[in-house]
Fold this sequence. Notes:
The complex is a heterodimer. Chain A is mostly beta strands. Helix content of chain A is 0%, strand content 53%. Chain A has strands at 5-7, 10-14, 19-24, 31-37, 44-49, 55-58, 61-65, 71-76, 85-92, 99-101, 105-110. By secondary structure, chain B is an all-beta fold. Chain B is 0% helix and 49% strand. Chain B has strands at residues 5-7, 10-13, 19-24, 31-37, 44-50, 53-56, 65-68, 75-79, 88-95, 103-104, 108-112. In chain B, the strands form two sheets. In chain B, strands 2, 4, 5, 6, 9, 10 and 11 form a seven-stranded mixed β-sheet that branches. Chain B is globular and about 40 Å long. In chain B, 35% of the residues are buried.
Amino acid sequence: TQLLEQSPQFLSIQEGENLTVYCNSSSVFSSLQWYRQEPGEGPVLLVTVVTGGEVKKLKRLTFQFGDARKDSSLHITAAQPGDTGLYLCAGAWNAGNMLTFGGGTRLMVKP
Amino acid sequence: EAGVVQSPRYKIIEKKQPVAFWCNPISGHNTLYWYLQNLGQGPELLIRYENEEAVDDSQLPKDRFSAERLKGVDSTLKIQPAELGDSAVYLCASTPAWGGEQFFGPGTRLTVL
């Protein structure tokens, strides 16, 4: 059983569409991170959110941390083929940076 | 600056054979992690080192898995004997001692036949 549940598991969309990926847990996290992983590579950090209700933007990507710090979402506007990859959320319970990863959302953006 | 280096990138072995993976973290990063990642899933922590000390190995299957980081720099993860279910990507990550972002290596993809 994953402590962090990501949905959807798979998403295939056309270029230009918008999408939202969700990361949910019954646990409270001190921080939550989003990673993107391409085939044959390790995950690369996109953003860290710390404060409940926090919203961070990274170009066309918008990340939100839930008020109770139990869930998070990633919204991509006008998706591009280069956004294709595995998106992982990971929660930390303390400043020691021990991460628990979700199962990931595999995104495919078709041109 | 060089990132986390892992070798080999790919390994194919027959079941019951031993296998070893090597990781060289980013220079100056005292904390090193080994993760296992099954296809289409998120990484799962196997072991964490602070310098040469294994501070969390609760998820490491100690009957067949072992790890070492003798000089507190590079690390080796070993499986002996390997089983079919060990087929996965083994990721290494490092972070400065004060925490923060974990930097991942490209992983070693293990296939056990």
